[in-house]
Amino acid sequence: MTAKARHFLDLDGIDEQDLRGMIDVAAAMKRGEAGMDRPLQGKFLAMIFEKPSTRTRVSFEVGMKQLGGDVVVLNGNDLQLGRGESVADTARVLSRYVDCIMMRTYEPEKISEMAEYASVPVINGLTDKTHPCQLMADVLTYEERRGPIRGRTVAWSGDGNNMAASWIHASVKFGFSLRIAAPRELSPDPALLEWANANGGSVTLMHDPQAAVLGADCVVTDSWVSMGDDEASRHNMLAPFRVDEALLSKAKDDVAFLHCLPAHRGEEVTAEVIDGPRSLVWDEAENRLHTQKAILAWCLA
Ligand code: CP
Ligand code: NVA
Question: Engineering a disulfide at 271: which of 83, 104, 250, 265 sits with its beta carbon 3.0 to 4.6 angstroms away?
Fold first, then answer.
Protein backbone atom coordinates (compact mmCIF):
# COMPACT_ATOMS: atom_id res chain seq x y z
CA MET A 1 0.00 0.00 0.00
CA THR A 2 2.83 2.38 0.94
CA ALA A 3 4.44 2.10 -2.48
CA LYS A 4 1.26 3.25 -4.16
CA ALA A 5 0.85 6.53 -2.29
CA ARG A 6 1.74 9.46 -4.53
CA HIS A 7 3.94 11.71 -2.41
CA PHE A 8 4.87 15.30 -3.27
CA LEU A 9 8.29 15.39 -1.62
CA ASP A 10 10.75 17.21 -3.85
CA LEU A 11 10.67 18.35 -7.46
CA ASP A 12 13.77 16.34 -8.39
CA GLY A 13 11.89 13.10 -7.70
CA ILE A 14 8.72 13.93 -9.65
CA ASP A 15 8.26 13.30 -13.33
CA GLU A 16 8.41 16.51 -15.37
CA GLN A 17 5.19 15.73 -17.23
CA ASP A 18 3.43 15.37 -13.89
CA LEU A 19 4.78 18.73 -12.71
CA ARG A 20 3.75 20.40 -15.95
CA GLY A 21 0.33 18.75 -15.65
CA MET A 22 -0.10 20.15 -12.13
CA ILE A 23 0.73 23.68 -13.36
CA ASP A 24 -1.88 23.29 -16.13
CA VAL A 25 -4.50 21.98 -13.70
CA ALA A 26 -3.73 24.84 -11.29
CA ALA A 27 -4.25 27.38 -14.08
CA ALA A 28 -7.53 25.70 -15.04
CA MET A 29 -8.65 25.69 -11.41
CA LYS A 30 -7.79 29.38 -11.14
CA ARG A 31 -9.94 30.09 -14.20
CA GLY A 32 -12.78 28.09 -12.63
CA GLU A 33 -12.52 25.41 -15.33
CA ALA A 34 -11.48 22.52 -13.06
CA GLY A 35 -12.02 21.31 -9.52
CA MET A 36 -15.42 22.96 -9.20
CA ASP A 37 -17.21 19.63 -8.56
CA ARG A 38 -15.70 19.16 -5.08
CA PRO A 39 -13.51 16.21 -6.14
CA LEU A 40 -12.05 15.75 -2.63
CA GLN A 41 -15.36 15.53 -0.82
CA GLY A 42 -15.00 13.37 2.29
CA LYS A 43 -11.18 13.53 2.23
CA PHE A 44 -9.13 14.85 5.14
CA LEU A 45 -5.72 16.48 5.07
CA ALA A 46 -3.60 16.57 8.25
CA MET A 47 -1.16 19.49 8.35
CA ILE A 48 1.75 19.27 10.78
CA PHE A 49 3.63 22.48 11.50
CA GLU A 50 6.89 22.37 13.41
CA LYS A 51 7.71 25.86 12.07
CA PRO A 52 5.42 28.90 11.69
CA SER A 53 3.43 29.61 8.53
CA THR A 54 0.90 32.05 7.13
CA ARG A 55 0.64 31.26 3.41
CA THR A 56 1.15 27.48 3.50
CA ARG A 57 -1.31 27.01 6.32
CA VAL A 58 -4.09 29.20 4.97
CA SER A 59 -3.72 28.23 1.31
CA PHE A 60 -3.76 24.48 2.05
CA GLU A 61 -6.78 24.83 4.32
CA VAL A 62 -8.77 26.99 1.93
CA GLY A 63 -7.69 24.88 -1.05
CA MET A 64 -8.67 21.59 0.57
CA LYS A 65 -12.06 23.02 1.56
CA GLN A 66 -12.67 24.49 -1.90
CA LEU A 67 -12.11 20.99 -3.30
CA GLY A 68 -14.74 19.62 -0.92
CA GLY A 69 -12.37 18.17 1.70
CA ASP A 70 -11.44 19.18 5.21
CA VAL A 71 -8.28 19.64 7.29
CA VAL A 72 -6.85 18.92 10.71
CA VAL A 73 -4.13 21.40 11.69
CA LEU A 74 -1.53 20.04 14.09
CA ASN A 75 1.14 22.03 15.83
CA GLY A 76 4.22 19.81 16.23
CA ASN A 77 4.39 20.52 19.95
CA ASP A 78 0.78 19.51 20.49
CA LEU A 79 1.44 16.05 19.10
CA GLN A 80 3.09 13.18 20.94
CA LEU A 81 5.71 13.63 18.19
CA GLY A 82 6.83 16.66 20.20
CA ARG A 83 7.58 14.40 23.18
CA GLY A 84 9.29 11.58 21.45
CA GLU A 85 6.75 9.43 19.59
CA SER A 86 8.47 8.39 16.38
CA VAL A 87 7.71 9.88 13.00
CA ALA A 88 7.11 6.33 11.72
CA ASP A 89 4.44 5.62 14.35
CA THR A 90 2.85 9.03 13.79
CA ALA A 91 2.73 8.26 10.06
CA ARG A 92 1.10 4.87 10.63
CA VAL A 93 -1.52 6.29 12.98
CA LEU A 94 -2.39 9.40 10.95
CA SER A 95 -2.78 7.19 7.86
CA ARG A 96 -5.68 5.44 9.64
CA TYR A 97 -7.53 8.77 10.08
CA VAL A 98 -6.70 11.02 7.15
CA ASP A 99 -6.20 10.75 3.38
CA CYS A 100 -3.13 12.97 3.03
CA ILE A 101 -0.44 14.48 5.29
CA MET A 102 1.33 17.80 4.76
CA MET A 103 4.33 18.45 6.97
CA ARG A 104 6.54 21.51 7.59
CA THR A 105 9.61 20.72 9.62
CA TYR A 106 13.35 21.25 10.06
CA GLU A 107 15.02 18.02 8.97
CA PRO A 108 14.17 16.63 5.53
CA GLU A 109 14.72 13.13 6.95
CA LYS A 110 11.50 13.53 8.93
CA ILE A 111 9.49 14.04 5.75
CA SER A 112 11.19 11.03 4.15
CA GLU A 113 10.38 8.92 7.19
CA MET A 114 6.79 10.14 7.18
CA ALA A 115 6.50 9.17 3.51
CA GLU A 116 8.13 5.78 4.11
CA TYR A 117 5.68 4.78 6.84
CA ALA A 118 2.50 6.58 5.76
CA SER A 119 0.10 4.67 3.56
CA VAL A 120 -1.36 7.98 2.34
CA PRO A 121 0.36 10.70 0.27
CA VAL A 122 2.78 13.01 2.08
CA ILE A 123 3.42 16.59 0.94
CA ASN A 124 6.57 18.52 1.81
CA GLY A 125 5.44 21.89 3.18
CA LEU A 126 9.05 23.12 3.64
CA THR A 127 12.14 21.84 5.38
CA ASP A 128 15.53 23.41 6.05
CA LYS A 129 16.58 22.06 2.65
CA THR A 130 13.71 22.63 0.19
CA HIS A 131 10.31 24.25 -0.42
CA PRO A 132 8.81 22.53 -3.47
CA CYS A 133 5.20 23.77 -3.11
CA GLN A 134 6.44 27.34 -3.38
CA LEU A 135 8.18 26.63 -6.67
CA MET A 136 4.97 25.39 -8.26
CA ALA A 137 3.37 28.75 -7.42
CA ASP A 138 6.43 30.61 -8.68
CA VAL A 139 6.41 28.85 -12.05
CA LEU A 140 2.68 29.46 -12.51
CA THR A 141 3.13 33.13 -11.58
CA TYR A 142 5.98 33.71 -14.01
CA GLU A 143 4.17 31.93 -16.84
CA GLU A 144 0.80 33.60 -16.45
CA ARG A 145 2.41 37.05 -16.54
CA ARG A 146 5.39 36.53 -18.87
CA GLY A 147 4.80 33.33 -20.90
CA PRO A 148 6.57 29.95 -20.86
CA ILE A 149 9.51 29.75 -18.44
CA ARG A 150 11.31 27.15 -20.60
CA GLY A 151 14.44 28.70 -22.09
CA ARG A 152 14.32 31.80 -19.86
CA THR A 153 17.02 32.93 -17.43
CA VAL A 154 16.26 33.22 -13.74
CA ALA A 155 18.70 34.95 -11.37
CA TRP A 156 18.78 34.27 -7.65
CA SER A 157 20.50 36.84 -5.43
CA GLY A 158 20.87 35.98 -1.76
CA ASP A 159 21.18 33.08 0.64
CA GLY A 160 21.69 29.70 -1.05
CA ASN A 161 18.90 28.30 1.12
CA ASN A 162 15.91 25.94 0.87
CA MET A 163 14.23 28.12 -1.76
CA ALA A 164 17.42 28.29 -3.83
CA ALA A 165 17.59 24.48 -3.72
CA SER A 166 14.04 24.11 -5.00
CA TRP A 167 14.78 26.66 -7.76
CA ILE A 168 17.68 24.39 -8.78
CA HIS A 169 15.32 21.40 -8.95
CA ALA A 170 12.78 23.47 -10.90
CA SER A 171 15.33 24.69 -13.43
CA VAL A 172 15.92 21.09 -14.55
CA LYS A 173 12.27 20.05 -14.47
CA PHE A 174 10.91 23.17 -16.23
CA GLY A 175 13.89 23.79 -18.54
CA PHE A 176 15.18 27.26 -17.67
CA SER A 177 18.68 28.54 -16.92
CA LEU A 178 19.44 29.53 -13.37
CA ARG A 179 22.22 31.78 -12.14
CA ILE A 180 22.69 31.78 -8.42
CA ALA A 181 24.56 34.64 -6.76
CA ALA A 182 25.23 33.84 -3.11
CA PRO A 183 28.01 34.57 -0.61
CA ARG A 184 30.61 31.80 -0.73
CA GLU A 185 29.75 30.77 2.84
CA LEU A 186 26.05 30.50 2.00
CA SER A 187 26.32 28.75 -1.36
CA PRO A 188 23.92 25.90 -2.14
CA ASP A 189 25.12 22.33 -1.62
CA PRO A 190 27.55 21.53 -4.50
CA ALA A 191 25.77 18.17 -4.92
CA LEU A 192 22.66 20.05 -6.07
CA LEU A 193 24.58 21.84 -8.80
CA GLU A 194 26.20 18.58 -9.86
CA TRP A 195 22.79 16.91 -9.98
CA ALA A 196 21.35 19.74 -12.08
CA ASN A 197 24.15 19.84 -14.58
CA ALA A 198 24.24 16.03 -14.85
CA ASN A 199 20.52 16.04 -15.62
CA GLY A 200 20.56 18.46 -18.52
CA GLY A 201 20.17 21.60 -16.42
CA SER A 202 21.97 24.90 -16.75
CA VAL A 203 22.75 26.13 -13.25
CA THR A 204 25.66 28.47 -12.59
CA LEU A 205 26.91 29.48 -9.18
CA MET A 206 28.32 32.99 -8.95
CA HIS A 207 29.19 35.35 -6.16
CA ASP A 208 28.53 38.60 -8.02
CA PRO A 209 24.85 39.60 -8.08
CA GLN A 210 25.38 42.14 -10.90
CA ALA A 211 26.72 39.40 -13.18
CA ALA A 212 23.94 36.99 -12.21
CA VAL A 213 21.15 39.48 -12.88
CA LEU A 214 22.52 40.80 -16.20
CA GLY A 215 19.83 40.32 -18.88
CA ALA A 216 17.76 38.00 -16.65
CA ASP A 217 14.05 37.41 -17.26
CA CYS A 218 13.26 36.84 -13.60
CA VAL A 219 15.01 37.92 -10.39
CA VAL A 220 14.35 36.13 -7.12
CA THR A 221 15.46 36.53 -3.55
CA ASP A 222 14.46 35.38 -0.06
CA SER A 223 14.93 36.30 3.59
CA TRP A 224 18.43 36.62 4.94
CA VAL A 225 17.47 34.65 8.02
CA SER A 226 15.34 31.58 7.39
CA MET A 227 13.35 29.85 10.11
CA GLY A 228 15.82 28.05 12.33
CA ASP A 229 18.88 30.04 11.13
CA ASP A 230 21.27 31.71 13.49
CA GLU A 231 21.33 35.46 12.62
CA ALA A 232 24.98 36.09 13.47
CA SER A 233 26.98 37.59 10.58
CA ARG A 234 24.34 36.85 7.93
CA HIS A 235 23.39 40.49 7.47
CA ASN A 236 26.95 41.58 6.64
CA MET A 237 27.45 38.68 4.25
CA LEU A 238 24.15 39.19 2.45
CA ALA A 239 23.98 43.01 2.20
CA PRO A 240 25.72 43.07 -1.25
CA PHE A 241 22.99 40.70 -2.56
CA ARG A 242 20.06 43.01 -1.68
CA VAL A 243 17.72 43.43 -4.65
CA ASP A 244 17.33 47.17 -5.20
CA GLU A 245 16.43 49.21 -8.30
CA ALA A 246 20.07 49.53 -9.32
CA LEU A 247 20.48 45.75 -9.35
CA LEU A 248 17.11 45.08 -11.00
CA SER A 249 17.93 47.59 -13.76
CA LYS A 250 20.67 45.19 -14.99
CA ALA A 251 17.98 42.64 -15.88
CA LYS A 252 15.64 42.76 -18.90
CA ASP A 253 13.16 45.66 -19.01
CA ASP A 254 10.24 43.31 -18.47
CA VAL A 255 11.94 41.37 -15.67
CA ALA A 256 9.64 39.73 -13.11
CA PHE A 257 10.59 39.99 -9.45
CA LEU A 258 9.59 37.07 -7.20
CA HIS A 259 9.89 36.50 -3.44
CA CYS A 260 8.16 33.66 -1.60
CA LEU A 261 7.44 35.94 1.43
CA PRO A 262 7.63 36.81 4.26
CA ALA A 263 9.75 39.77 3.11
CA HIS A 264 11.95 42.13 5.08
CA ARG A 265 11.96 45.47 3.27
CA GLY A 266 15.36 47.13 3.50
CA GLU A 267 17.12 43.80 4.00
CA GLU A 268 16.99 41.34 1.07
CA VAL A 269 14.81 43.64 -1.05
CA THR A 270 13.99 47.34 -1.07
CA ALA A 271 10.40 48.56 -0.74
CA GLU A 272 10.77 50.20 -4.15
CA VAL A 273 11.35 46.82 -5.80
CA ILE A 274 8.90 44.62 -3.91
CA ASP A 275 6.13 47.22 -4.07
CA GLY A 276 7.08 48.29 -7.60
CA PRO A 277 5.61 47.46 -11.03
CA ARG A 278 7.85 44.47 -11.79
CA SER A 279 7.05 42.65 -8.57
CA LEU A 280 4.60 39.74 -8.88
CA VAL A 281 4.68 38.76 -5.22
CA TRP A 282 0.95 39.05 -4.50
CA ASP A 283 0.04 36.88 -7.47
CA GLU A 284 2.78 34.54 -6.30
CA ALA A 285 1.21 34.28 -2.84
CA GLU A 286 -2.25 33.76 -4.35
CA ASN A 287 -0.91 31.04 -6.62
CA ARG A 288 0.06 28.95 -3.61
CA LEU A 289 -3.67 28.27 -3.34
CA HIS A 290 -4.22 27.22 -6.96
CA THR A 291 -1.06 25.14 -7.30
CA GLN A 292 -1.58 23.33 -4.00
CA LYS A 293 -5.13 22.44 -5.06
CA ALA A 294 -3.54 20.85 -8.12
CA ILE A 295 -0.96 19.09 -5.94
CA LEU A 296 -3.70 17.75 -3.65
CA ALA A 297 -5.72 16.56 -6.64
CA TRP A 298 -2.61 14.83 -8.06
CA CYS A 299 -1.75 13.17 -4.74
CA LEU A 300 -5.30 12.01 -4.14
CA ALA A 301 -6.19 11.09 -7.73
N1 CP B 1 6.10 31.34 1.46
C2 CP B 1 5.68 30.61 2.51
O3 CP B 1 5.82 29.39 2.56
O4 CP B 1 5.07 31.33 3.49
P5 CP B 1 4.65 30.80 4.94
O6 CP B 1 5.90 30.57 5.72
O7 CP B 1 3.83 31.94 5.49
O8 CP B 1 3.84 29.55 4.79
N1 NVA C 1 13.74 30.45 3.37
C2 NVA C 1 12.57 30.80 4.14
C3 NVA C 1 11.33 30.53 3.36
C4 NVA C 1 10.07 30.88 4.09
C5 NVA C 1 8.83 30.52 3.32
C6 NVA C 1 12.57 30.00 5.44
O7 NVA C 1 12.86 28.81 5.39
O8 NVA C 1 12.29 30.58 6.49
Answer: 265
